[in-house]
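FORM 7B: Structural annotation worksheet

SECTION A. Query
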Amino acid sequence: MGNPEGKSGPAAGEEEREEVLKQAFLSFQSASESLVHSYAALEKRIADLSEALTRKNLDFDRQGSFLEAILTSLSAGVIVLTPGGAPLYGNPAMEIFSEGGEGAVLSLLTDRGLWPPDSSGEEEAFDHGGRSWSVVRRPVPGPDGRPIGYVFIFTDVTRVREMEEEVARDRRLRAMGEMIAQIAHELRNPLGSLELFSGLLSQNAVSSESIEYLGHMMTSIASMDRLIGNLLYHTRAPELQESSLESVPFLGRISQDFDRMVRSAGRSRTARTLTLSADPSPVPAVLRVDEELLYHSLFNLVSNALEALLGLSPGDTRPREIRIETRLGSSGEYLFLVKDNGTGIAKEVAERIFDPFFTTRAKGTGLGLSIVHNIASAHGGEIRYAREEGWTMFSLLIPPERVDPIGTNGNQGGER
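SECTION B. Predicted structure
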């Protein structure tokens, strides 16, 4: 009989194999599930990294676009070269240096001692394209610290150079002005003595020859005094010493002084007819001005007119005249007009006649009209030039707030 409680033989072995396979399957299933979970986690990690990388790329693109926009907007030229000299990048401002092709910049840097990279030059200033430039070289370090490229920055320093030159010129002019002022003060003392003694001699002169010689002396003294005054007024800003000046007596005085100067100049040249005509009916007014500065301004204008007439061709035999007139403007301004019937001022130089040191005469200083302009401005007025019916006319304007018209009864007018 067989064994009822246990199995033996082939049946028992089959059951053991089934149990082993069952356990193996369970292990495989558990491993598979673990692998699936790990793979899902890996996929999520990859997705997160991919998203982060995308964001980084967008940030880099935005930063790159921003940097490109900055470099494009710069007035300075920027170029990046490899260690071998090949251009990697250049902004639009570099076009001025690249007119000769790709090798133009490298050739320029080589000429300036900034290439090859091991040269000692780090910064250089030079002229190119009608401008002044400064170029600076900076290495681009790699991970190991060695340069993987070089950045060159070209900056336009033209205005800086001009300002440096202006400062240096101003310093020279200031020093020159101080010296001129000192010399002018020293010259005015003996000049005053000459004027005094020549005036005393003219009172006792009897012969026409002596009178003529003394007239020449006084004209020369006046000319020298005008030159010294122009130099002094140019080296310092006019400081007004205001007083109430009646226009009619003032016009009479300057007419007498200037007429003597004109007549003396006419006698010193042959075959010339020179006259000075003063306004027969000057506009009466009281002016709040600096009398000395106003006198000097009109002296300069008359002297310029006189020089213009004396410079006419000897063959021009027409009468040569200088006129001094006065007017009251529509807004209450007072005008002194100095006119001459010479050839006038060329159109191409008319805009520059009030610039300091500008002159069309070989022996002129170019300060006369500039001084008149400064004195007029100090009074709040102006000086104007015009060509009118064959007359060269300069108008010295005194502003309304400095003018008190006088009525026909001799009293100051209350309304303007």
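SECTION C. Observations
Confidence is low (pLDDT under 50) at residues 408-416. The chain is about 50% helix and 20% strand.

SECTION D. Sign-off
Analyst initials: ____
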